[in-house]
Write a structure and sequence with these properties.
Helices cover 37% and strands 24% of the residues. By secondary structure, it is of the alpha+beta class. The protein has a domain of 89 residues: PH-domain like, CATH 2.30.29. A four-stranded antiparallel sheet has the order 1-2-3-4, with helices on one face. A three-stranded antiparallel sheet has the order 5-6-7, with no helix packed on it. A hairpin with a 2-residue loop joins strand 5 and strand 6.
Length: 184
């Protein structure tokens, strides 16, 4: 057999650019006040729905509170993330660079999170916790493949959620969180 000398042999080689292990989602342990406030709000909504005979909605509210409690109680397991020359691997799911649109960083629950938007409607956005990896390091690895968005406009739902969380917190912020706000 004859080798093609005009084709580079390493052109189809997949290189791992960066790999790390981190939590599957941002997580913060909640206190008793969070659970008590949530239950009180749920009972208030349940009473209103009962008065209007909305029994199915009562079940929906109950199930949403159950999911919120489950997510607030159970810490996430660690995922393996890998950035390669072909795309991004999250556990067993692989996304080609052509399927991805752009990326940006946001802080959630005091943890820096990488958001990568996709061209397709589902999943729409990949949310990746950084763990011990520095934001600038990931940014330098992603820039040759995806555009970086410094400013992302908040949607109406995000603005509404932030307003509710600010004006009607489910738990008092810890003294450590208050000192972090003053420092920034």
């Amino acid at each position: 057999m004859e080798e093609h000398k005009d084709l580079p042999s390493s052109s189809h080689e997949v290189k791992t650019l960066l790999s790390w292990t981190s939590a599957g989602r941002p997580f913060r342990k909640r206190g008793k006040q969070y659970y008590l406030t949530s239950i009180l709000i749920m009972f208030l909504v349940e009473i209103i729905l009962f008065l209007f005979s909305q029994y199915m909605l009562m079940l929906v509210v109950l199930s949403l509170v159950f999911v919120a409690f489950a997510l607030a109680t159970v810490p996430p397991r660690n995922f393996v993330y890998r950035l390669s020359s072909e795309g991004i691997t999250i556990e067993d799911h692989f996304f080609l660079w052509q399927e991805l649109y752009d990326f940006y960083f946001k802080k959630r629950e005091g943890i820096e999170v990488l958001h990568i938007r996709t061209h397709s409607l589902i999943p729409g956005e990949l949310t990746i916790t950084l763990g011990d990896i520095k934001k600038d390091h990931i940014k330098s690895v992603l820039l040759p493949y995806l555009p970086y968005r410094e400013v992302i406009r908040s949607t109406f739902m995000e603005k509404s959620g932030d307003w509710l969380a600010k004006n009607f917190p489910l738990e008092k912020p810890s003294p450590r969180a208050q000192t972090e706000k003053v420092a920034s």
